[in-house]
Design brief:
Layout: E1 2-4, H1 17-31, E2 38-40, H2 47-50, H3 56-64, H4 68-71, H5 80-103, E3 107-109, H6 130-140, E4 146-150, H7 157-163, E5 169-175, E6 188-192, H8 199-213, E7 219-223, H9 242-253, E8 258-261, H10 265-269, E9 295-300, E10 305-310
Parallel strand pairs: 1-2, 1-3, 3-8, 4-5, 4-7, 5-6, 7-8
Antiparallel strand pairs: 9-10
The structure holds zinc ion.
């Protein structure tokens, strides 16, 4: 699996987990390589691409540091490296999505700080919404429907705002912390979990619901979060073993439909199992097939849950 990363992911002067952890993961991969994981340099995105999702005035503010309040609306102190960092981070998510579509394999990026970003300002340490940017890039590249699966502990209210009204993009959001909570609407689904014993069953239920109610998805953009893990102070309400959490993190990738942002070395380790076959839809398999499910649920004893696997009948691109 290709994982996009560049040293610019951490180039901002503001030192904080969100601006540093990708470097820690890259270093850990250097110390403890994982078979099948390849770090690949990504191209940064640019102002023009960002302005397709975000207000151009906000994009300019982050680039120039002026007005400073807007440039720092995500919660970081501005310096010129901030612009380089967020272009790199968001470019990596876009690159992973396009790579997944092109190769029909799971790709990833060590990006973070995405899902709270609004159209005209940042929020919650998120500057630009790389998930929505990548969804747009995937649609431009031929995908017809995109699923954004958000298992970060906090709600993806920024994503909700940005994709609302676009029938082609769905969001499935399972959260354990009310930060950035929103009223689910249309194709945006939000489920709050307050009891750790309900966390994994809830994800299973929501994925089953998607299989029943949603159209086939050509790609899944998985926003992983480490903070639901019980070892994280934020995840205290949702305690679980590292092993079980890793299995959950691995689960969306075994949908086999695309890219993810990975929070930890251990979550990457879970994704090399070879189960990550793909379900990228063929643009030629439209018409009567368009209502077919590209993905099916199947029992996965290794999780005690279910996971999706690609249908063999849907004319998948290989
Ligand atoms: Zn979070």
């Amino acid at each position: 699996m290709r994982i996009f990363y560049s040293s610019n992911y951490t180039i901002a002067a503001h030192s904080f987990e969100t601006t540093r952890k990708s470097g820690w993961i890259a270093e850990s991969l250097g110390r403890e390589p994982i078979a099948g994981i390849e770090l690949v340099a990504s191209e940064p995105t640019n102002a023009s691409a960002l302005s397709r999702v975000h207000d151009p005035g906000y994009v300019d503010a982050v680039r120039n540091g002026n007005p400073r309040e807007l440039a720092e609306s995500q919660g970081f102190h501005w310096d010129p490296g901030l612009w380089e960092m967020v272009c790199a981070l968001n470019g990596g998510v876009i690159a992973a999505a396009i790579d997944a579509l092109r190769t029909s394999r799971v790709s990833g990026s060590l990006s973070s700080g995405l899902h709270h970003a609004r159209r005209a300002r940042g929020a919650g340490f998120c500057t630009f919404n790389g998930l929505v940017l990548a969804a747009g890039a995937a649609l431009d590249a031929g995908a017809r429907t995109v699923l954004i699966l958000d298992l970060d502990a906090h709600c993806g209210g920024g994503t909700h705002e940005l994709i609302h009204g676009d029938e082609r993009i769905w969001q499935m959001d399972v959260s354990v912390d009310a930060f950035d909570q929103y009223e689910p609407l249309g194709n945006n689904q939000l489920e709050m979990v307050h009891d750790s014993s309900r966390y994994l069953p809830t994800i299973e239920r929501k994925l089953t619901w998607l299989e029943r109610e949603a159209p086939r998805f050509d790609i899944c953009l998985y926003n992983a979060g480490m903070d639901p893990f019980g070892g994280c102070s934020i995840g205290a309400g949702c305690r679980g073993s590292r092993k079980r959490f890793s299995a959950t993190v691995r689960k969306p990738c075994s949908h086999g439909v695309g890219c993810g942002t990975f929070p930890s070395h251990s979550s990457l380790r879970g994704d090399t199992s070879g189960r990550s076959s793909t379900a990228q839809g063929s643009s030629r398999s439209t018409g009567s097939r368009s209502k077919q499910r590209a993905l099916r649920m199947t029992d996965a004893p290794w999780l005690g849950l279910s996971h999706w696997k690609p249908s063999t009948k849907d004319g998948l691109v290989r």
